[in-house]
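pinned: reference chain
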Amino acid sequence: MTIIETHGLTKHYSRGKIRALEDLSISVEAGRIFSLLGPNGAGKTTLIKLLLGIVFPTRGSATVLGRDISDPRAHSRLGYLAENHRFPEFLTARQTLYYYGKMSGVAPQTLKKRIPGLLALVNLSKWEQVKIRKFSKGMLQRVGIAQALCNDPELLFLDEPTDGIDPVGRREIRDILQRLRDQGKTIFLNSHLLSEVERISDEVAILKNGRLIRQGRVEEFISIKEQYQVQVAESGTQVAEICRELNIPMIPQNGNVLISVGDEEQLNRFIDRLRQEGVLIRAITPRKISLEDFFIDVIEETAEGSP
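pinned: its structure tokens
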């Protein structure tokens, strides 16, 4: 099921002098963690504002949860955590969820039943009566996620949810987001921390100068086609001989070898020959690069001012 879909979505400011978003067409499937990437000024925040109905497009169209973005009926099924959000410091965690939940239109009796589960989800049950002013940055982010879930949304928008948080806090938030995805919720994530995006996202879209330049699964972007790292129990001598026999380029790597094959058929011939020679295969894994390396390569290969 497609939960977000845009067609030629465009947003200009200052009578067309500032082109924040230009002819954007993307789709997001339900039950996934979808991350939006791009350098500063790429149009990420503008896209989120358009999808939330905060600003209106110059042209183009978009639907969220099957409804046009101008239709307020979809908003009750959305959750949102803004970047650099602020909560009244005199409120406790429980009070924060209660009041923000009421502003989302949730009935008080429903909130009273729902809040304990939300606090447990974000590991703040023991802190429910503690005032917000005493919370660390990581705790504030977790309260923010709980706040965004008060109306039990189908689609959750999170803007930089792990920014400024220590590694332990980032791990906690990753675990929370993965649990939410496992529950069937869709998460639309905007983040500059590419290592976090790589670990948690199912799919990413990369924007530059208001235009989409890539969209796809993370695994597709970080895997290097037809290159594999081979780990065997014995020395690499037999592997090297088989590579020469099959005309497969190889590079020794810390006791393992890196091979480059022409296609899957050649890879399978290589594996068959290893077995014929009685070589114990411990692992054959596709070679990968980091999402950060891929992102930088994509940004640099697109000329300034062009998609």
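why pinned: Residues 167-182 form the longest helix (16 residues). The chain has ten helices and 15 strands.
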